[in-house]
Design brief:
2-oxoglutarate-dependent dioxygenase essential for auxin catabolism and maintenance of auxin homeostasis in reproductive organs. Catalyzes the irreversible oxidation of indole-3-acetic acid (IAA) to the biologically inactive 2-oxoindole-3-acetic acid (OxIAA). Belongs to the iron/ascorbate-dependent oxidoreductase family. By secondary structure, this protein is of the alpha+beta class. It has an eight-stranded mixed β-sheet with strand order 1-2-10-7-12-5-4-3. A four-stranded antiparallel β-sheet has the order 6-11-8-9, with no helix packed on it. A hairpin with an 8-residue loop joins strand 3 and strand 4. Helix 3 crosses helix 6.
């Protein structure tokens, strides 16, 4: 009985968005889902979202089609995905010392609209050969990710009593859509066990939406230090997680969990991730600061915090506290 209770305690919240119309805030099951979202982000900093708007056909086209074509390209071609030294961790990533091994990832930054996706595809396939399907698939999936991110952000602000900030924050938020491949270590018959492919860290942004494909690997650390393997609760699952920008803006009312990616077996892991990156100053609104909740973090810009994190490497520590803690 004790072991069973322990397993239940370590299960991440699962929230059903099938009754939520992201284009109609307040309608349907909005209020009940909002309460679950606020509690999950405060307690765990993350949750499993049952999100059928990202359909099975859309997932198959993304992972079995678009990402397969993308990662089959030569490395020299994938390295064209760069946003310059002022935006570390934005473009092509591979072989980062002490943080990632046997991993590579590409990203479409700033906005995930048709023009940006087309520009990315033209960079990868300059002759235009066959990239119309890639553009349609990637933009369609990223749009669904962004709709969920916006709904979760709105629900959280409503739940905290600061809904009046939603539009301004949304106008100053950009999205980075990252497509990743994690190499499999090999089968148990070869003596291979689980290997870390992306080291322990917290996200720097406000919200992250993650979709795993077939192979699990994302692990989240609880406040108590235990690690939970994220297993999708349904074929329509995506994973939503808070980052340090949201933790700071809410004056610590939201938790930003440490997490990592570790894989085993002989099948590569693929994921698609949407990061909501704020371009506004991170400063808790007056409504979230009082005698019971004194200021936790100094005002700052996420771009400066990202550069700080990049300079600190893979040390497993609370970098937000080190950067701007009061």
């Amino acid at each position: 009985m004790a072991a069973e209770a322990s397993r239940k305690e370590l299960q991440l919240p699962r929230i059903d968005f099938s009754g939520v119309d992201t284009s109609a805030p307040g309608a349907g099951q909005w209020a009940s889902v909002r309460a679950q979202v606020v509690d999950a982000l405060a307690t765990f900093g993350c949750f499993d979202a049952h999100y059928p708007a990202l359909s099975p056909d859309m997932r198959a086209a993304l992972f079995d089609g678009a990402l397969g074509e993308l990662f089959a390209l030569p490395v020299d071609v994938k390295r064209r995905n760069s946003y310059g030294p002022d935006k570390p961790m934005h473009g092509y990533l591979a072989g980062i010392p002490d943080l990632t091994t046997a991993y590579e990832s590409l990203a479409i930054a700033d906005r995930v609209d048709p023009d940006r996706v087309r520009a990315f595809a033209d960079l990868m396939w300059p002759d235009g050969g066959g990239n119309a399907g890639f553009c349609e698939t990637v933009h369609g999936a990223a749009k669904r990710f962004a709709e969920l991110e916006e709904a979760v952000r709105r629900m959280l602000l409503e739940g905290l009593g600061v809904a009046g900030y939603h539009d301004a924050l949304g106008e100053s938020t950009r999205h980075v859509f990252r497509m990743s491949r994690y190499q499999a270590p090999g089968s148990a018959a070869e003596g291979k066990g689980k290997e870390v492919r992306y080291g322990t860290h917290q996200d720097c942004n406000t919200l992250t939406v993650v979709c795993q494909h077939q192979v699990d690997g994302l692990e989240v650390q609880t406040r108590g230090g235990a690690w939970i393997l994220v297993r999708p609760a349904s074929p329509a699952s995506v994973f939503v997680m808070a980052g340090n920008a949201l933790r700071a803006w809410t004056n610590g009312r939201v938790h930003a969990p440490f997490h990592r990616v570790a894989v085993d077996g002989d099948v590569p892991r693929y994921s698609a991730i949407l990061f909501a990156v704020p371009e506004f100053k991170i400063q808790a609104p007056d409504e979230l600061v009082d005698d019971d909740h004194p200021p936790r973090f100094k005002p700052h810009h996420t771009s400066d915090f990202i550069r700080f994190c990049a300079s600190q490497g893979a040390r497993h520590e609370d970098k937000l506290q080190a950067f701007c803690g009061v």
